[in-house]
């Protein structure tokens, strides 16, 4: 099947003059020229035009596009690269949409979007720790999961997390031992809470990695002063660490 220059221009949303210019600068020649001088374009030419328009959409100039096309050995490689670039752009736009939607919902609910971690994002403040311990994918998947929640869902999750912390603090204040049934029940609840977060080893069902994650979190609760305050004081953080690590050793 072939298209005339007018048909191709109309379908591509450009002008015939643009197609002629692409021909003059060596970017896109017609597949054939009829005896009457009409230009015709086949599927291969249309695929090349698609690539040109995609690169133009990314802000590339014609000389740079010409270089890319000249260096390609196989057209499929270029198309695969463009698919990857478009998917990355799609993901970026989807994240922006979720962020703006979240802000709108917060404002409609009478909340200040920047007032706490809940509205700033799930683990943005701990990105470096998450990436260094469990990889970029763990951060991205869990972060996307969090930003995909509605404001009410985020509030419900935050309440559940606060309830878990309060239960830990109550166990410490009651004088429970880290290996007691009360503490181990809380540790099981803590691990179950972690398993709800996509991208984490506990959510993926990776036993060995999950054990290391739980132990690592226990260490982080003690080593990072931000968590000591969460569990009332340094002694509380050590209690949570010891309970989680005992659970990881014996029950996971």
Automatic annotation (TrEMBL):
PROSITE patterns cross-referenced by the UniProt entry: HTH_MERR_2 (PS50937)
InterPro entries in the record: MerR-type_HTH_dom, MerR_fam, TipAS_dom
CDD domains: HTH_TipAL-Mta
Domain (HTH merR-type): residue spans on this chain: 1-71
Organism: Nonomuraea guangzhouensis
Protein name: MerR family transcriptional regulator
Chain coiled-coil ranges: 76-110
Alphabetical keyword list: Coiled coil
